[in-house]
Amino acid sequence: MNLSVSAPGRICLFGEHQDYFGFPVVAASIDLRATIEGTSRNDRLVRLELLDLGEVFEWNLDELPEPTARQYWLSALHVAREEGWLPERGWNAKVRSDIPQEAGASSSSALTASWCALIASFAGRSIDSESDREWIAHATWRAEVQWFNEPGGMMDQVLCSMGGVRLVRFRPHFETETLPVPGGAWILLNSEEPKDTLGILARAKNKRLQLLEQWGVEVGEKWPEILPKIPTEWSVEDGRLMEATVAIRAVSQKGGDCINDEASSLSSLGSLLSEHHQWLSNGLGVSTKRIDTMLSLAKSMGAFGGKMNGSGAGGTAFVVVAEEQRNALLDSFKQQHYSAIPIKLGAVGVTVERRK
Description:
Number of strands: 12
Oligomer: single chain
Number of domains: 2
Strand content: 15-25%
Largest sheet: 8 strands, mixed
Order of helices and strands: EEEEHEHHHEEEHHHHEEHEE
Distance between the termini: 7 Å
Mean pLDDT: 92
Number of helices: 9
């Protein structure tokens, strides 16, 4: 059996650093994809070639080693074995990706979603429907987050597996709502700065959880309509973190409503994106000078707005511009040696193609 499996990257439109609190997020898949070509074998060996990195791995399905941190290829095999969707025979796999690596565009989750879909397909499971892709999203989350007890939420796994533009709710139960694909031209800006995803997530999540507990405020669906007074013993930094947490939740709600309202203008959407970025940058401190500079440059050239993407402190950002301004902005960024990639929102989720 020969299979070609792919999954898209994603951008987070609204709700950065709040999915792990159980708050809703609005995100979109993009037309940059990770692809795995798989061919079944007659033995129990799995051979994996990462073509972009020049790395090769080989495992025996009967003697799988324990995965170390972030070895999602291995953790997915363990999850499949424990849950009964590990194939009887091995396979060869070759991996390529168009998604910027370690840049906040979910290159990792796109690869893991593709890998889980490949494993499940070789085991005879269909990956054709919305419910099938939702199952892949949860399997990907178990392989990436639950297995290693990592601090991330589930936004990446949902968008890479299910695709589209979605409002994702986590509490009181998981559900997604498909939103219209916003108009305009979208551009992914890569700062090419390395980022410490897990370190940023742990700090942004754990510190704020401590403050919320001190404040007596529960997250998720129990978030109160009227918030209590800020504790007097808090430092200026503590108060700033909570002010940003409240503001990000509010602007995310407005952003979701804006996208869902087809009468809303791109100018309104861009302003909300920029407001969201300011709270991430000045409130949570998860942007960088280079990302702020790239966004300011795009805005000076007529972009409606934009924001950092992913956990922050490096990686990517994005902006939305009028269609007729896209090429001029791309040319200007190229001349100033910034990486700018045109993208389309709402790409299809994980796909499995059977080849002869």
